[in-house]
Amino acid sequence: MFNKEFFIDNIKTLFYALIIAVIIRSLFLQPFYIPSSSMEPNLLIGDRLFVTKYSYGYSKHSFPFSPPIFDGRIFEKKPLRGDVVVFKTPADNRTDYIKRIIGLPGDKIRFIDSNIYLNNSEILKSKTSNTKSVYCGNNKIDIFTFEEKLPNGKKYNAVYLKNFPYQNSDTFEVPENHYFFLGDNRDCSKDSRFLSSVGYVHRDNLVGKAQFIFFSSDRSIGSIFYFWKWNKSIRMDRFFKKIN
User: Fold this and answer.
1) Which of 37, 38, 62, 192 is catalytic?
2) Most buried by CB count within 10 Å: which residue of 125, 183, 197, 218?
3) Is 129 a catalytic residue?
4) How far is the CA of 80 from the CAs of 14, 77, 85, 144, 219, in angstroms?
């Protein structure tokens, strides 16, 4: 016998659960999956991480499907140089990218002999003995690993191909209310250097700040549904790792 009251109660429960999930996702935390190698060695394909939506305030892109409910940002907080940020690409205002902020509004950035110059001063970097190779798509590439230090003291690892193919560039001048992003995997990243596809990112396109990894699995070994391979595919050492 059909129980109408039971059915309505369950629909209400699902509805309330959906509303709560949307509020949490829009205002507080949103999970993201890393599908590419552009942020290696710091973020790996298969990492799942949480992004805080409140870190920079809210724009229409803070909400599912980017509804045009208001213009600009509310409760805005300025991002810091070196933050790892999820943003909507300017090309379509729909695709999520994750990169590191290098340039703030008004900054000038240029590559000279494979070194990054920020406002005519070289970003300090020192070679480390860490990662020797990383992925670029499905291929492994041999790299040098450097610890870079930004003017505000932020330190992180970045990798470059050993033959340093991206040696020199024109000067990138970051417009007002925009940011300049680079991937940590410098020679395998589509980022603000590519003006036709990414370029300078408007402040309204910022989605949130990447905070920590909550789960990670190596797809090359097998799906997470292959439980008999969990000992090899699940990267336990990356669980709850803070993103620098």
Assistant:
1) 38
2) 183
3) no
4) 39, 9, 10, 26, 32
